[in-house]
Amino acid sequence: MDLDYYDYNYDDLITRPGGSELIAQDIALRCPQGLNTDPADGPLCGVQPGGDIAGFDPNGGLNDQVIRDDEGNFLRTTPSFTNAQELQTSGLDFRIGYQWATDTLGLFDMAVQASWTNEYEITDTNGVTTDGVGKRNAEYGDRPLVARVESQLVAGLAERLATALTPWCDTSMPYQDDQPVQMADLDGDGEAEPACVGSCLRATNFGISNLLDDRINSFTTVDVQYSYELPAWGIQQEGSRISIGGQNVFNRTPPKLNFDGGFDPFTHDSRGAIWYARYTMQM
Known about the structure:
There is one protein chain. The protein is mainly β. Helices cover 6% and strands 45% of the residues. It is built from 2 helices and 17 strands. The strands form 5 sheets. Strands 1, 6, 7, 8, 9, 10, 15, 16 and 17 form a 9-stranded antiparallel sheet that branches. The chain is elongated. The protein starts with a strand and ends with a strand. 19% of the residues are buried. The model has no long low-confidence stretch (mean pLDDT 78).
């Protein structure tokens, strides 16, 4: 059993803001009084009920990092690195394992390892401190999950043949999507609704119906590998091995997210089931 506690404090940290945070800053600069579709409430700004964009200044906002077309429609972000004052993080990493031997099937080795984040506080250049534990951290792009668990079983199916079957499981716990959602009265009924400014169509295509649902569900994948150690033969020395296996063998789909690609690429893998065969030769 291994148990490690860590506590790090970084000064003069260099970071890069997330795309959604840049978009939120760009909108705040272009619409200082907020998104508005009702002339009675002040200057019109943002996407209007007819689809036009009001209050757009081609030279305003963060036009060097948030790229828009001539009509004001969002195209892409080009974030640049910035200085953050400080990052303080702490947590636990632990592993527990057990081995047992059998007369006919060889050696079995089972282990579970996990990580738990207790603290992840980042302070920006304005002195504002953000608690990022369990959040997607759209502003900075880091993913300090509250917990992540991995389990593994190595089975020596026939020790004399040097074969091994290795299934293992990886689980990321639920966390929060803190991507800002702009609210505005888009249909003039007096009630504010999400004004996602260019991302509503993307959310519809991904099958996301509630933009205010900020929960990113847990995600578990199962991998398996079978390997066979080959005998020495010719230039092939002992230790050469043939392996076949698969990753995410049940073809699980990662949780949906209103983000480029429809998932969180820093935490999850959307490629589905991957099968492989590998030959490793020792010389």
